[in-house]
Write a structure and sequence with these properties.
- The chain is α+β, with helices and mostly antiparallel strands and about 425 residues long.
- The chain has ten helices and twelve strands.
- The strands form four sheets. A four-stranded antiparallel beta sheet has the order 3-10-5-8, with no helix packed on it.
- α4 runs antiparallel to α5.
- The chain is elongated.
- About 35% of the residues are buried.
Length: about 425
């Protein structure tokens, strides 16, 4: 879409992304994301002295016979009970059909809804217990199984405060995969994401080289370059992390962290561009310093809002990754907060577009703003709509829907803004 003249000079963004390529990438990523990878779960939970029940972890088995094994030990802490002998306690296993009801019951009444149990021999010397194993069968549909540890008879003895319970688990699907059902195919999906951004980057590069023969690159194009490059690099790092995750169960922490940083940088840049253009940058003035939010300079205000939004996203990605109610990184209170912020950003965007529209009587500019608003609306509303729609699906489907859907909106604004 050609941008309206600024100070008498026509400025154009002459990029062209082949939508057939995007359709192929999108649908292939979603439909074929069914390959298996592996993982190891090691974590610590805290057991309260007056609530001798702790949730450990969950796992979604696909149809067939899934197997599990667990071991537990008491962590070293001033509140940890001093055992004089080994103590046998139950590992409680609940089915997803009952879990909502289980979670509402008092801690020591939850065992009434248990599907099966295994006995764990807690060692008096704070060493790992022997492995306990079992097989869980699914015949109609995949099921999420919840694992918990209980000491309602207080066999561990009195304590003065919460104490750590450490556990290690290994889960196997019938075909040998160690990934929970909702995570199957994440490595393939990450590869498709990386491919999509690389294709976009090459298409943009081709158009830029053509544009640079006649004029220098506009700052917006340069920022879009950084955003797309950040997304491509982040996707490649995420793919690398998942490749190692499939083999060692932990992945590469550095790649995982850098991937999230680059992804958030890309989101911040795209959001900033969309808001600045809506406020009139390149449309009413080519001087960024003259773009205002009320009486304040627009860039610091917009950047601050975007950074705050991304901080919440980062917190959501790292809080309670294996929480009993979470099946994707932004589920729960953090997710709803992000939804509210996205809607607030969209409202600000619409007000800014409306003000710019009313202050610009040129029909060409108004036509651009109408199309620009539609394209940007996809970006701002995609996460809230996807978040709400995902919640109506079975828990074991939510991660697949979110992971395949959440990366698509950032493609639309650069592609649409940059299409002649």
């Amino acid at each position: 879409l050609p941008l309206p003249p600024v100070d008498g000079r026509p400025e154009e963004l002459t990029f062209d992304a082949d939508m057939q390529v995007w359709r192929f990438v999108v649908f292939t990523s979603f439909l074929l994301s069914g390959f298996a990878e592996g993982k190891v779960v090691k974590d610590t939970r805290w057991m309260a002295p007056d609530k001798r029940f702790v949730y450990l972890s969950k796992f979604a088995f696909k149809i067939g016979n899934g197997s599990f094994k667990y071991r537990i030990k008491l962590g070293t802490h001033t509140n940890s009970p001093a055992l004089e002998k080994n103590v046998t306690l139950p590992l409680l296993i609940f089915l997803d059909n009952h879990w909502i009801e289980v979670d509402r019951l008092p801690a020591c009444e939850r065992s009434k809804k248990v599907m099966t149990t295994r006995q764990v021999i807690v060692q008096k010397d704070n060493e790992w217990s022997p492995w306990v194993t079992g097989v869980l069968h699914q015949s109609i549909r995949p099921h999420v199984w919840y694992f918990a540890f209980s000491d309602c008879q207080e066999l561990l003895g009195p304590t003065s405060g919460p104490f750590p319970v450490m556990f290690e688990s290994v889960m196997l699907q019938e075909d040998g995969s160690q990934f929970s059902y909702e995570l199957l195919g994440t490595r393939f999906a990450a590869a498709m994401q990386a491919l999509s951004y690389i294709v976009m980057m090459l298409v943009f590069l081709k158009r830029e080289l053509e544009l640079m023969r006649t004029q220098p690159l506009h700052p917006i194009i340069q920022v879009l370059n950084v955003a797309i490059l950040s997304s491509a690099a982040g996707s490649l790092l995420n793919m690398t992390h998942l490749f190692f995750y499939a083999h060692n169960g932990t992945g590469l922490t550095l790649c995982d962290v850098l991937s999230e940083v680059l992804s958030m940088l890309s989101q911040m840049l795209v959001t900033t561009i969309l808001l600045l253009i809506a406020l009139g940058y390149t449309l009413r003035t080519g001087d960024l310093a003259k773009v205002r939010v009320g009486s304040a300079p627009a860039l610091p205000v917009v950047a601050t809002v975007c950074v705050g939004h991304l901080v919440l996203v980062a917190i959501g990605n790292h809080m309670a990754d294996d929480s009993r109610f979470k099946f994707h990184s932004n589920e729960g209170a953090i997710g709803w907060t992000i939804v509210c912020i996205r809607i607030a950003l969209y409202a600000i965007f619409l007000v800014a577009c409306s003000n710019t529209y009313l202050a610009s009587p040129a029909s060409r500019l108004q036509a651009f703003l109408r199309t620009y608003t539609i394209a940007s609306s996809l970006y701002f509303l995609a996460f809230p709509l996807l978040f709400i729609v995902t919640s109506i699906f079975a828990p074991y489907l939510r991660h697949k829907i979110m992971s395949n859907g959440v990366w698509l909106p950032p493609i639309a604004p650069p592609s649409w803004v940059g299409t002649p």
